[in-house]
## 1
Amino acid sequence: MDPLVSLVIPNHNGAATIERCVAAALASRHARLEVIVVDDGSVDDSLERIRRLPCRVIALPRRRGAAAARNAGARESRGEVLFFTDADCLLQPDAVTRAVATLGGAPDLAVGGTYTQVAPEASFFDRFQSVFVNHFETRHAPHADYLATHALAIASATLRRHGGFAEDGLPILEDVEFSHRLRHGGCRLVMNPAIQARHVFGYSLARSLRNAYRKARYWTCYSLGAGDLLADSGTASRPLKFAVGAWYASAALLAAGLAVAAPASIVAVAVLQAANAWANRGLLEAFRRTHGFGFAAVSAFYYVLVYPVAVGAGALSGAWLYGTQPRNKATAA
C-alpha cells in the first residue's frame, strides 16, 4: 500500500496564491494524502481563505518563521512521509507520486524537486527566474548540495531523528542548513528533476533585483560561517559567482582604462566576458531552449550586465553581516 503523505505548506500573508497552492496540492495523483496548511501569524485574510479549503489548518498565534511553521505541521502530521512546499508554489499533479517512488521507503534519504522551466506568469522576470532556478538546481542531478523546500520529501521518522528545521537561524536558508545537517548525519540527498512545482513569483525588475540581493546577503553570511563560500551549491553556483566577479572586474578594468586612456582594458573586458559566457553556457542554452533566441538574448543581457550588481551588493552586505553578529547566529541557518 502507498504510504500516507502529509503535505505541509507554511503560509504567511499568502492570500494572493494560497488557494491556488492548495488546489494544486489536492489535485495530486497520490491517493493517500493529507494537506496541512500552517498559518504563520498572517495579517492579511489568507487564514480566512484557508479555513474554507478542504485541508487541515494550524494557526500559529504570532509569526515565528517558515522553519517553525514547517516543524509545527510535521508535529501534527499523521503521514509516514512528509512533503514540503511553499504557499506560492503550484505542485504538478505527479510531484508527490514521483517523490514517494524516489524515496522508495529508504530510511536515510531525502528527495527534492525544482521549479518548472516555464513559469505560470508571463512576465519576463518570472520566466527568467524559473529557468534560472531549474537549471542550477538540477544540473548535477541526482546529486544535490541542498534540497529546497519548494519540493522536499522525507520520511517523518527521518525528519524527527535529525531534529527538523532550525528555528533560530538566518532567514530563508533553513532548507540549506537542514540539508547540510542531514548530509553530515549520514542522510543521502537526491534531486529528481521530474518532481516539479510552478512558482508564482510576481516579479518586476525591482522585485527580481531585491530577491537577488536578499538571497546573496544571507547566503554569503551563512557560507562564511560554514566555510563553503566558493562551493558549487545549487543557485549559489560557481557560474553565478563567476558572473558576479566578471562584472565587478570588468567595471574596474573599464574605470582604470578610462583613467589612463588604455584601450587594452577593453580587450581584457571582452576576454573576461567571453569566459563568462562560456562558464554560463548551460544557463544561456536553457534560456534559448525554453523560450527561444529572443528571450535568451534579453536574459543574457540581464544576467551579465544587471543581475550581478544586486548579487554582488548582497554578498558584500552578507560579509558585513557575518562580521558584525555573533558566530553562533551567523552559522545557525
## 2
Amino acid sequence: MSGKKRRVLVVGGGAAGMMAAIAAAGAGAQVLLFEKNEKLGKKIYITGKGRCNFTNACSPEEFPGYVSTNPKFLYSSFGRFNNEDVIRFFEESGMKTKAERGGRMFPVSDHASDVTGALARRMRELGVAVHLSSPVRELVLDSAGERVCGLVLGDGSRQEGDAVIVATGGLSYPSTGSDGDGYRFAEKAGLAVKEQYPSLVPMTTLEADAAQMQGLSLRNAGVRILDGKKVLYSGFGEMMFTHFGVTGPLILTASSVIRKPWKHDTLRMEIDLKPALTEAQLDARLVREFETGANKQLRNVLGTLLPAKMIPVIIARSGISPEKPAHDISREERRRLLGLLKCLPYTLTGTRGFAEAIITNGGVSVRGINPGTMEAKTVKGLYFAGEVLDVDAQTGGFNLQIAWSTGHAAGIAAAQPVQDAI
C-alpha cells in the first residue's frame, strides 16, 4: 500500500508542536494535535516579557555559535529551515516583524499572541485537528517496541497513528504544563534521557550583601565566572541584584554557557563595575574625585562613581569608614577601592529552580535521534522536537529557533508516505 496518506499525531501545542503540525499537514498528512492546556502556545505568551522574541536575525552562519548544547545536531534541521525562513514564514502568515538590539526578532505589535495566532491560522488553513485540554497518558508501541502505533489519552481513549511527534517541552515554567511527560515517553520507548537542569536562569550567591542591592540594575557591567583559574564565562552587558543573588541577561546567558557546575563546588564571579576604564584610568579618576571632594566623607564622594545602593556595600567590603574624609584616604585604601570597582567578587552557589528557568538543559539524548528527521533511531515513526531534546541555546530568540527548526524537520519526515507497508 505504497503512498498511503500518513496519520500523524502531535503531542504538545507549543512552538515545536505547532510548527511540526503545520509542516506535516503541508506535506500532505492527516494531522491531529493534542494539547493538555486549555489553549495553544501557553509558554509563547510569556516569552520575551509577553512580546515573544521568536528568533534572531543573526546570519545563519553565526547561529551555531549561540547554541550551548549539541550545536552540531542542529546543522541539518537548521540548514533546511533557518532563522531567515522563520521570519519569512511569519511575514507570509500575516505577522509583521521587527528586529531589535542584538538581532532579537519580535512581532511589530509587541504581542506574543500574534505569534500563536499566526501558527493557529496556518493549522486551520491546513486542516489540522486541534484537541485542547487533551493530555496524553502514554505512547502505544508494537509488541517488539520497534514501532509506534498511537497514543493513549488521559481519558483512556486510544488514537491510532502512523507517526507520533513528541513536542512536550522540558521542565521550565511548569505552570505552562511542562512537567517532563516527554522524558517519560522517551524512556518507555527505550531512549536515553540526559539529566535535566534549569538553564537561562538566575543564580544564587553566598554573600548576603547582594540582597542589600535588590533591584539594582547595572547596564554596562563586565562579568567573569571562574572555576578555580579556569574562566567559564566572560561577558559584558546588563545584570541585576536580587534578594537571592543575581539575574539579568548577562547572568542568564552565563547559566546557559556554564550549565551544570553545582555538583561539587562553588564558582567565583567577578564584576567589573567600570569596564570602559583601565585600572590606571580609573585610579586617576579616583584621585581627581578625592581631590575635588577633599573635605567630603567617603560615602558622599563615591556618589559620582556608583549607584546609591552599591556605595554601602563597596565601603563595607573595603574596610574603610564611610565617614572618613576623602583627603585622609591612604594610597593603600584607594587601591582597595580600585580593586573592588574593577573586580567585585561573589561566590556563586547554584541556580534558581525550573519555575524561574527560561529553558531546560538536558532531555532526550540526541545520540538516539536522527538529526535530519528527528526520528528515534530505534523506534520507527516516533519523533521528538523542541525543548524535550537535549539541545539548548543562549537567550536572544535562539531557543525558539531550535523549536521551529526541529519541529519543521519532524513534521516533514513524519508526513512521508509509508513505503514499507504491503
## 3
Amino acid sequence: MKKSALSVISLALLGVACGVRAQSSVILYGTIDAGVGYVKTSQGARRGFIDGILSGDRWGLKGSEDLGGGMKAIFDLENGFDIGMGQLGQGGREFGRQAFVGLSGNSWGTLTLGRQYDPLVDMVQPLTADNYFGSIFATPGNVDNYDNSLRVSNVVKYVSPNYAGLQFEGGLYAFSGLAGRTG
C-alpha cells in the first residue's frame, strides 16, 4: 500500500512539474578563428600562427525568459580570448565583449543594462562589409568601430521595437562608475 501511495504522489508531482515549465532558452555559442599566415611589413616578414583572422575568438551564453504579454527577460555574457596566447581579451575581463541583462517587449522595445556595443555597431555595422569579412575590410585603427572593438561599460541602452522594418537606437548612457561624476 505504501509503495502504490508513493507512486501516485510521485506521478502527481511529476504532472505538476511538467505543467509549470516556462518558455526560456539559453544558447552556448562561440567561434575560434586562427590560421597560418605570412605578413610582410617595413620591419620584416613574419610567418606562423595568426589569431583572429576574420573575427575575434569568443564564447558566450545568451538567453531569454518569456515573462508573458510579449515581454522577455534577456541576457548575454560574451568572453573574448586569444587562442594563440591563452589569454583573456578586452583587458583581461572574463566577459569583456558583452555582459548585460535587460527586458524586451514587442510593443515598447528593449532596455538593457551592462557592458555593450555602442549604437553604431548595432545599427550600421550589419550593413557594411566588415560584418561579413571582418578585418579584411577594416578601417585602419578601427576609427569607425565597425569592427566591434569598442564596448561601453555601465550602460543603460534603449532600442525601439521594429516598426514595419524601421528600428532606431533610442539612446545609450554610460555611468562613470565613480560617485558624484557623470558618465
